[in-house]
Amino acid sequence: MWISCRRASELVSEGMERPLTLMERISLKIHELICPPCVECDKQLHDLHTIVSHMDEHISDNGHEGPCLSDQARKSIEIAVQQEK
User: Fold this and answer.
1) Which of 15, 37, 40 is nearest to 27 (CA)?
2) Which residues contact 13 (CB under 8 A, 6 or more apart)?
3) How many angstroms from the chain centroid is the CA of residue 1?
4) Tell me, what's the pLDDT at 37?
5) Residue 3 contacts by C-beta under 8 Å, 6 or more apart in sequence?
6) Which segments of the chain have a pLDDT < 50?
7) Under 8 Å CB-to-CB from 40, ≥6 apart: which residues?
8) Extended beta strands in 1-85, E state
9) Residue 34: its pLDDT value, please?
């Protein structure tokens, strides 16, 4: 099953939050076989996920709690993400 680059990146992101179904994994692998830029995007998303995870650990280790972004910054990001969809 062919999927778009946008769907491939969504699946990569979703795969970090939940197990992908067999069909989703197959579709993603087929797409990545024919789309090297998506392979690079996949790598970058995983790297970003790893960095953010380490940041969370670092913040917890330093005793800081709560979000690092202001409410206004968080809202701006949410709006930008919604506009991308």
Assistant:
1) 15
2) 45
3) 22
4) 93
5) 11, 27, 28, 31
6) none
7) none
8) none
9) 94
Question: Residue 16's Cα: distance from chain center in Å?
Answer: 7
Q: CA 9, CA 56: separation in Å to the nearest integer?
A: 23
pLDDT of 68 reads 66
> Do residues 26 and 1 lie in contact, with contact meaning Cβ atoms separated by under 8 Å?
yes
Q: Which two tokens stand for residue 3?
A: 């999927």
- What local confidence, expressed as pLDDT, does residue 28 receive? 95
- Cα–Cα–Cα angle for 43, 67, 20, nearest 5°? 35
Assigned token pair, 76: 């701006």
- Residues 6 or more apart in contact with residue 45 via CB below 8 angstroms: 9, 12, 13, 16
Query: What is the DSSP secondary structure assignment for residue 23, as one 8-state letter?
Result: H
Q: pTM score > 0.90 for this model?
A: no
Cα 1 from Cα 30, distance rounded (Å): 8
